[in-house]
Amino acid sequence: MGGSQQHTTREELQAVTDAAKPRPKANPAAEKVEDIYPLSTLIDEQTLDLLPIHHWQENIAKKLPVTIVGSRYVSQRLQKVVKGGDTMKIKALRYVLLLLDVLGTLKVAGGRKIAKGGGAGKRLPEREELRKATGVQDFVIEGVRKRFFDGSYVYRFSLPPPSSSCSFILRLS
Predict the structure, then answer these.
(1) What b/e readout covers 143-160, taking b as 16+ CB neighbours within 10 angstroms?
(2) Are 173 and 81 in contact (CB under 8 A)?
(3) 150 strand-pairing partners
(4) d(CA 155, CA 148)
């Protein structure tokens, strides 16, 4: 019985648990709020490159109206951000709008999926319906699906909901 057993401390267990969660890593050395979670840790570069923002930029440059349905937050900030010329902030707003559009298309999944994290969860509609609702390419939709959904489902406790990423990105813009 006198063998030396190593006991895992509570802090070590918490560190292992936190590392396993699919959330962005914070930069504790950041001096500005927007540097805590750089946009590149929240949205992959391929998705950022394919987000359609040119029509927003063109319409605002020509002083034409840009109609945003589904997000008062995005519509109230769009003019100022586009006129500021920061492409990354424009793309952040476009990504927030994309996530809100995806959230708006979710349907309640039938039955209980206890093994997947408790609760029924929600499912994505068909790809064509998503493309129509979001106005983005399939690759971008696929990036959102891979990041936030288990197949075509999102469960309450298994993955971070798209709404939590919206709140991270909203702080940047």
Answers:
(1) bbbebbbbeebbbeebbe
(2) yes
(3) 153
(4) 9
Q: 3-class secondary structure for the chain?
A: CCCCCCCCCHHHHHHHHHHHCCCCCCCCCCCCHHHHCCHHHHCCHHHHHHCCCHHHHHHHHCCCCCCCCCCHHHHHHHHHHHHHCCHHHHHHHHHHHHHHHHHHHCEECCCCCHHHCCCCCEECCCHHHHHHHHCCCHHHHHHHHHHHCECCEECCCCCCCHHHHHHHHHHHC
Which one-letter amino acid corresponds to residue 112?
R
Q: Strand pairing partners for 154?
A: 122
Q: Model confidence over 59-94: pLDDT tens digits?
A: 888 988 888 877 888 888 888 989 898 888 889 889
Dig out the tokens for 56 from the structure: 């927003």
Task: Please state the φ and ψ torsions of residue 16, each to the nearest 5 degrees.
Answer: -65, -40
Q: Where are the domains of the chain?
A: 31-172
Is 58:65 a contact under the CB 8 Å cutoff?
no
pTM of this prediction? 0.72
For residue range 110-120, list pLDDT tens digits in order.
644 434 444 56
For residue 42, the one-letter residue type is L
